[in-house]
Amino acid sequence: PHKKWTYDGFDKLIKLLLKDSDNKVILCGSKSEIERNKKLYEENKLDSLINVTDNYNIEEFSYLINLSDVIVTGDTVGLHIAISLNKKIVSFFGPTPHQEINLFGLGKKLVREELECLNCYDQFYCPYDGKCMSLISVNEVYKSIKELLVWILFLQSLEIGLKQIKDGKIR
Known about the structure:
Elements: H1 7-17, E1 25-27, H2 34-43, E2 49-51, H3 58-67, E3 70-73, H4 77-84, E4 88-93, E5 107-111, H5 131-134, H6 138-166
Helix pairs in contact: 1-6
């Protein structure tokens, strides 16, 4: 249970992201996240929030990830699919070792490295009540997402400019 970021964190992040009408948020997850995501959806109901939790197979899930600009996830299968699809990523680590995952420059790992209990693999009762995940702040996640979105816009502009140069529209 401590491998997941907090409900409150996701709720506040959704509210921040949906202040910008250009953003769309897709809630994904497995059976264990159905109730959490249903509640997040109900509390933040807007057209730009979509809940597809546990309503897809692995191919459809991969397609959803590929449609996304930025993936926000813990150490999950979604993280590994996003890496394989070369997507921008903001990932959370606590009970699993962040050192074993290479993002290949695709994003940011959020880790509370000051905690001595990291990498416990969530194999025993947590005497710290999952602080490795709960100490990851909404502002930290939001800032990481915004930085990645700016980078994506820059790359898109660069691609358009290079195409225009190639087509002779700009000298």
